[in-house]
Input
Amino acid sequence: MTHTITKYGQPVLEQRAEAITEFDTPELHKLVDDMFDSMYAARGVGLAAPQIGVGKRIAVIDLTTGEDPAQKIVLINPEIVSREGSQTSEEGCLSIPTFREPVTRAQKVTVRAKDASGKEFEMTGEDLLARAFQHETDHLDGTLYISHVSPLKRDLIRRKIRKLQKIGEWG
Ligand code: NI
Output
């Protein structure tokens, strides 16, 4: 089932999400499936639960946008356990559509998380995957990528969004 993506301005996006304590339940598996459906429908490569209005520590990533089911990644209660190097490139977010800004992130990151059945694993990613790990775990702490751009640019984006809200073109 596909859910509407929450847009910047909705409080759930800027709140710390709650840890998952019960694994391998039908509800959790359905939520994960819904997150993939919603992400693919929106043509994203990553999605955090707050982006469908659910304040839980779950993120999904698929850099192939559904082309290769083996590349689907589910991160529950993720934690970044190591960061190395740095990379800068343009970043966007399904919750802040049409905007993109350069963001500096670690180049290589290891994340520790659980899957939907509760099994703990570690995964190391570089470049775009490392960026996705950082962007999505940030979401679970209520942090959006615009927190990592200059205050000047952030204010400009906020002003533009306020204008879009006024004319009813921001959900
Ligand atoms: Ni995002």
